[in-house]
Design goal:
- It is built from 4 helices and 5 strands.
- It has helices at 2-11, 34-37, 50-57, 76-83; strands at 16-21, 61-74, 91-93, 102-105, 110-123.
- Strands 1, 2, 3, 4 and 5 form a 5-stranded antiparallel β-sheet that branches.
- It has one domain (2-123).
Length: 133
């Protein structure tokens, strides 16, 4: 998928591709700020996160955190329906597979999820691309 995206960008005459990447391992560390999470590396120096690692192996470089890449807001009834969780008190709620906690305000019957992602830049060349996990 990443190779096809890089190829399409190159074929369109672009010299670089900047992708908003949702690190697929971040949900295991919902309370860890994204800025810290992206610094986690394996012994081989590659990112600990599997999806960031795919980008790194393809030549991508992490540029910065996109602090509010996706925002989902709703009533507590909606959040209960969406997640099956109680959403019955004010504070942070850990939702399975969410990258960060959902902020719940019981007094105002409102909860909001603000998901950070990561900007990864790929410098494109005429040479073929190779992507592996």
């Amino acid at each position: 998928m990443l190779a096809a995206l890089r190829d399409a960008a190159r074929d369109a005459g672009l010299t670089r591709l900047v992708a908003p990447v949702r690190p697929n391992g971040k949900h295991r560390y919902p309370n860890l700020p994204m800025a810290e999470y992206i610094t986690m590396v394996r012994e081989d120096g590659l990112p600990a996160d599997p999806w960031l690692r795919v980008h790194a192996r393809a030549g991508g470089r992490i540029r910065q955190v996109a602090a509010a890449s996706m925002v989902m807001a709703g009533s507590l009834a909606q959040w209960r329906e969406w997640t099956g969780l109680p959403f019955d008190r004010t504070g942070d709620v850990i939702v399975p597979e969410a990258l960060v906690p959902v902020h719940c305000d019981a007094e105002h019957d409102h909860a909001v999820y603000v998901e950070p992602n990561v900007w990864v830049e790929h410098v494109l060349s005429d040479a073929g691309s190779s992507v592996s996990s």
